[in-house]
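Two folds, back to back.
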Amino acid sequence: MHPQLAHDRDRLGSLLESVRLHAARILDELDERAVLPSAPPPEAGPLPDRGPGLAGALEAFAERWEPALSASAGPRYLGFVTGGATPAALAGDWLTALWDQNSVTSLDGAGQELERQTVGWLRELLGLGQGHSGAFVSGATLSNTVGLAVAREWLGEQKGVEVAEAGAAALGPVRVLSAGAHSSIPKALATLGLGRGCLVPVAALPGREAVDPAALERELAAADGPCVVVANAGTVNTGDFDDLRAVAALKRRYRFWLHADAAFGAFAALSAGHAALVEGLDTADSVCVDLHKWLNVPYDSAVQFTRRPDLQARVFRNSAAYLSSAAGTPDLVHLTPDNSRRLRALAAWFTLAAYGREGHREIVERCMGLARALGETVEAMPGLRLLAPVRLNVVCFTLTEDPTPERLAALADACRQEVFMTPTVYAGTPALRAAFSNWRTADADVPRIAAALRAATPAGAQPGRAGQT
């Protein structure tokens, strides 16, 4: 054994204790750390020939890289609908690396049974029925890709074609209907060989990002054969929801696969005041849920739910003599693109086991309350204009005067030490968006965000309300 490896092995307990103490210091400082520090990334250095071991690597990382890392796990990182890691989820993630399981087959330990139990807990938490099975993937993009891959196989089933064998070309033209699909949807369609061009935009309700059911029915009536509908349960700009019950009701008259992109919106089910937004989610044929958002588990973690695991296994079947069969209840290796992956379910299992439904309901409801508070603050602040009502956990706003991308970027940059917000365009207007989904974010953070915005917003303008032009 290499002497440095042997040294670290023999002193692993004390080395890990030093890592624990280092991590604890970072966590203690996280709430006050600059959200986007001004330190530039270090210049790349050469690969060492003789490494310094774990202690030396930790020292080099702390000195060179940590000053430039964002506080994305902290309370005022409000971009990309990013959660943090609850204490239990962090512990679960550490143990995931410790056990180092590749839990995709029943031939190797209990890992995939732990994943199945965790999927069952999530199904219960989100109000999905027993008809939905699920598997862990890396994030919402892959969850949407897997869901649409199963939809592609369903389209083939309707036409008497096994797409997994014959290829996407055997389907002929495909139509995927959606109002304001997330950017991961055309990316998935390109990956699956269906092409971005098959995505057909459907009109939204006036002043909304939600689909107009009458417009959707017109598109379905005009379709030549079965198609796919992608419904939104929580849009990234404004947290808007399609009427899932109205969309699902159209299946009585038209043949289509209903895929629900509920990456973060699915967690509205935990709030009594917002659960109506996701009524009908259980009727979807496939559902995307992203866990490193509102469940607050570390990257990367999401689940793909579907009612047709048989079609899912047809797509992702991995035929090898050393693996189990895809027949019956297929092992996880047959349900996602991965043949190897870490036991992502363990972090989710830990946070669900530790805090239960009540703990995660409190996180969701607190985040929604903080978003409403910031929305009210923006409405009253001279120079800023709220572009849409705060429906869930996203605040979308702009400048009242000359809201160019450049001026909004300058505003966000001026606030970057205190809060991180991402740019967007809503109804043709350049804007900023703040998404509340981190378990650490508290009442005291909203005044700090408001103060940063107030200091950076050009003076002299009047406040604006949602919908003003």
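---
second:
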Amino acid sequence: MLNIATPRLSSAEWQDVKATLSAVADCGCGEPAAAGPVRSRIGHALDAILGPKKAQPVTLAPHLHDVREFLCESGRTRAIAERHVPALAAQGYSRAQIEALALLGA
């Protein structure tokens, strides 16, 4: 958990934070491993044993890629990923909203 104070936001700002976190909730961090012969055989064996995956990969809207990268890095480092802050600010997030995203999403 990040060691920052709870940001002061209006109700509308909290709603934006909530909507953003909901949009990236099932996206996960990192890219999936590249498919290859060994990975493919293991995947087929698991599908045969457990059944095929029911969930399709989540398609993330392009404007949310920066948010996901920010949340993933903030979660890994347990600090606000400052290098992603300018991209989020350019999308219209205030510093307080960015801190709230890090606090709740990391």
